[in-house]
Structures are given as C-alpha cells and as structure tokens.
Give the backbone structure.
Amino acid sequence: MSEKLQKVLARAGHGSRRELEALIRAGRVSVNGKVAALGERLEDESAVVRIDGHTVSAKAQEEVVCRVLAYYKPEGELCTRHDPDGRRTVFDRLPKIRGSRWISVGRLDANTSGLLLFTTDGELANRLMHPSRQVEREYLVRVFGEVTEDKVRNLVRGVQLDDGLARFEDVVYAGGEGINHTFYVVINEGRNREVRRLWESQDTTVSRLKRVRYGDIFLDKKLPRGGWMELDLKQVNYLRELVELRPEDETMLDESKDNTSRKRERSRSQKIRRAVRRHEERVTAPAPKGRRKPTTATNKSSSGEHGSRTKASTAGNGQTAGKGQAGGKGRTGGKPAPKSTPRTRK
C-alpha cells in the first residue's frame, strides 16, 4: 500500500479529495502522531490516522465497497453537513452508516429541488464533480418572461458570465402559458447557480428549477420529495466507468430483497412516503418544554440500516433509480412552442 493520504481517506469516505487536502493544509490530519503534509504517502495500512484528533479508518482499496444514493432534494434544504441556525440540510434524512459517511456529489441551491447523488467514495465524488469530466446534468426549468429565438440561440452558443463562458448543451421547450414557459436544459459542469445566471443574462427570471438527471441516472418518478434510494451495482459501475475508476464486484444491498413484484414496489414506495411524512411531523411539531426540538430523522430502508455485503444488484430502500424515469436525453418536449418561443436542439 503506497498511496497519497488524501486519496486513501477520500476512498474510505472521510470527505472529497479537495476537502481532505484543505484539512491536511490546515494541519488537522496526523499519521502516527505526526502532523501530515500535503502529498504525503501512506505506506502502511496499519498506520494510525487522525482527523481533528479522532482516529479514522484508512482502508486498502480492495476493502472498500462503493455505495451511491439518489436523493430527491426538496426546496428549502441546504447542501451543508451542519447549519448553525438549525435549518434543514440534505444530510438529515440519509441512512446512518458505520465507519464512513455520505459525501454529496456537487450541490443544489436551497431553492432548487431534484436529484442529488451521495456516495461513500470520495474519489468517485471528486471525479464526477471535476469540470474536465463533462458529466451532463439535466434540469427542468420554469422561466418568467419573453423567450425569443435569439435568446435561446445565445444560450446555446455561449454567454460570458463573471466566471467565464457558459452555455447550455441542449434546450428543449416543454410548454407554457403567457409569459411562463418550461424548458429542459442540459449543462456539463456544476458552477454556482449556473442555470439561473444563464437565463438572467437574457433578462429572463427562473421561477422554478429542478434537476432530473445526472449522467444517465434519472430522478425516479416513484421517489417522493425527501426520499432516497440506493443505486444497484450496475448503476454504481456506470458512474465509476464514466470517470475511469475500476468497477465494483460487491454491493451492500441484499439480493434476497426482490423488487420485481409490483405489489412490493408499491409497498416500498408507501414506506418511503410514510418515513418522509414522519420526518416532516417531527421537524415541524412544537418541542415540549424542557426538551430540544428534534431536527433530524433517518429514512429506514426495507433492507435494514446497513444492508448486507453481497454480490448483487437490487434496489436499496425498495427502489431502483431507473434510467428514463424522469427527464431524459433526446426528448421531443410537450406542447408546441409559442410563436416567439423556439424549440431548439444544439
């Protein structure tokens, strides 16, 4: 074992590679009692590694099983692990795991909803987020204002923003009335508020924004807001191969949990919805005197809190984040566009 420290820790799920590099620079990581230096290599897997004084695991590559969750982020939740003001975060409803933690693959604005991926593999998260990988993100966007052919043409050709040139890979009209119009748009990077800023550059306001696809992973129509599902082995390996990581041959999902029966699928969907409702009730209920208001709750999957380590590819939490469930490449749109509103492909 001879790998860079930040890479080993990222793979073990202690953060993305960028986050860990920042921790090492700040002197918050030590190896065998000595403060680690950026670029230091871990030669011995039995070495004692600490972050902020807490011992953490540094597993060899073959010992780590990559897990990925698809989460339906509601509007209003923050993409941060902890909020000092006690507001809801996207981590509040995720299942608890031992010896690792969930890492978000990118972020969504507080007032943006839709598909957000989480993984236990920091290296996978880092590569998926990196601009050089050009991973497509598709959004359903509702805009307020007149949308002309010239505006759409500008958005596809490229617009100079404060942080550089930006453009939509694809723009497809999906219907609307009056000056409210809906489009599917595709970008292949994750700059801050990029979709909103592109439309604003054309004097058009985004009134609703929802991510429906990341790569070829789609937001499943059966998944309620605030619900999550674990990707099967085939989907995990699709993401890994997309960013040139070796494929996995194991999953934490239980192959005995068959998800082919429609009756079971309905039952599991209902369980997810009930769990989400219980979480909403706990968060919004007034706290009794002398006790703190609960702020977190965890979705329980039908396969248990941690699952079992098997060579399988079945759905977690009773669902599979299936391709083509919501959104999609090559769509033809809905209603015909109004006279001044084009349907444009790249």
